[in-house]
Design brief:
single chain; alpha/beta; 2 domains; six-stranded mixed beta sheet; about 15% strand; binds glyoxylic acid; D-isomer_DH_NAD-bd
């Protein structure tokens, strides 16, 4: 089919390296007439009519009312990534536009990052790397001992598909697994990974050596972990966040880490991202921070794009939509 006859997809400016952009663009071009933001802005009148869908890469760009008003034929926003807290779902829905996400593609790589952060923080990997590259200092490993993940208790807050993948991995480390979730998992699912349900989050916080946050960011989970919750954790415990920064009260976390209310934190997400260079979290040696890389793998980028494309095509073809997200 000629490019002009394919449904138009607007790809927002996603930054990144040219190679990634080219790969994504090649995938999208198989199904769509791809219109970049630059092309759209240069020829708004003609392009705006063609655009039936917008492809959003992860949570970088947001979609505002002005953009929606300029796209009269828009039917769907295909978010590549699972979290949609950067999108105003109610406002988008008021334009009759659907939103979709990619829960399947993100689950394994994000669970891997959760495990990587837990292990790295437990064994003080970042400090170890820094010591290894500063050969003029004398260091003895006994001066900076880590803690073991094996047989420790892991508390998972948010047992969706990523949480469940974390539990599967943690089982291989003989971890005792607790979880807290809005809805309890089926008995067979709990048994398959040996996970115990904690109806009260407080119980999980008190018992866990590692607490991992894997909830969506919603008004209910905003600042879910604050001073009170941190004070319930063991002084030897580590907090890992692979959900969204705003799930934690960051000021309370800084205080808890400075005064050793908890042992350490390992964060793939913060607010803002990135943190300003003078942020107190960057000055603490009991924190490791990665720059929101839960899905930053060659495979995940590709799979997320394919999942997003399948969602968009389903909307445009009037077929059942694999992963639609609804405003609350
Ligand atoms: O943060 C990543 C995602 O929401 O998929």
């Amino acid at each position: 089919m000629a490019k002009e006859e394919l449904p138009g997809v607007l790809i927002l400016d996603i930054g990144g390296t040219q190679g990634v952009l080219e790969n994504l663009a090649a995938l999208l071009k198989k199904h769509f007439h791809l219109i970049t933001m630059k092309e759209f802005l240069e020829n708004k009148e003609e392009m705006s009519k063609k655009i039936q869908s917008v492809f959003v890469f992860e949570c970088r760009p947001t979609i505002d009312r002005e953009l929606l008003e300029s796209l009269p034929n828009l039917k769907v926003i295909g978010n590549s990534g699972v979290g949609v807290d950067h999108l105003d779902l109610k406002m988008i829905s008021s334009f009759g536009v659907k939103v979709t996400n990619t829960p399947h593609a993100v689950a394994d790589p994000t669970a891997d990052i959760g495990m990587a952060l837990m292990l790295a923080s437990a064994r003080r990997l970042v400090e170890g790397c820094q010591i290894a590259v500063s050969p003029d200092t004398k260091h003895f490993a006994v001066d900076w001992l880590g803690v073991e993940v094996t047989r420790a208790t892991l508390g998972i807050i948010g047992m969706g598909s990523i949480g469940y993948k974390v539990a599967q991995r943690a089982r291989a480390f003989n971890m005792r697994i607790l979880y807290h979730n809005r809805n309890r998992r089926r008995k067979e699912e709990e048994e398959a990974v040996g996970a115990h349900y904690c109806e009260k989050m407080e119980d999980l916080l008190q018992q866990s050596d590692f607490v991992m946050l894997i909830v969506n960011l919603t008004p209910e989970t905003h600042r879910l972990i604050g001073k009170k919750e941190l004070s319930l954790m063991k002084p030897t415990a580590t907090l890992i966040n692979i959900s969204r920064g705003a799930v934690i009260d960051q000021d309370a976390l800084v205080e808890a880490l400075q005064s050793k209310v908890i042992r350490a934190a390992a964060l793939d997400v913060t607010y803002p991202e990135p943190l300003p260079r003078d942020h107190p979290l960057l000055k603490l040696n009991n924190v490791i921070i990665t720059p929101h890389i839960g899905t930053a793998t060659v495979q995940a980028i590709h799979m997320m794009a394919e999942e997003a494309i399948a969602n968009i095509l389903a909307v445009l073809n009037g077929q059942p939509i694999p992963s639609e997200v609804f405003p609350k």
